[in-house]
From TrEMBL:
Protein name: MaoC/PaaZ C-terminal domain-containing protein
UniProt record similarity statement: Belongs to the enoyl-CoA hydratase/isomerase family.
Gene3D superfamilies: Hotdog Thioesterase
Domain MaoC-like residues, every copy: 7-113
Top-rank lineage group of the source organism: Bacteria
Pfam family, one: MaoC_dehydratas
UniProt organism field: Actinomycetospora flava
InterPro entries reported for this sequence: Fatty_acid_synthase, HotDog_dom_sf, MaoC-like_dom
Lineage, top ranks: Bacteria, Bacillati, Actinomycetota, Actinomycetes, Pseudonocardiales
Amino acid sequence: MTDASAGDQLEPRTVTITRADLVAYAGASGDQNPIHWNERVALEVGLPGVIAHGMYTMSLAADYVADLAGDPAAVVSFSTRFTRPVVVPDDDTGATVELGAKVTDVADDGTRTLSVSATFDGKGVLGKAVATVRPR
């Protein structure tokens, strides 16, 4: 990415989220909210089904940025808002999230600002996702 210019689209990534991923993330994060694993509870509170943890979705996008940077330590900042849930079906396929990034600015020192996208079912699930990456 060190040669990417403002306006360049970076290599996209497709990730899959399964119910098993949600259970593993719940255990690691301590977020045991049943909307992330129990269909009945998710539907009772008005959700369309079990949803991925917003922070898990954000972590997938942050991991993508770190890989683009070539070094996790090169990521200076990453921020976003959660705009829509990722509904994860109870099957072997899971939910597919498309990640993308565009270079929006290159500073004199080579630091790049990225606009990051994450879409599920053709709709954005992260809003105003911005990363700052310094050169390695």
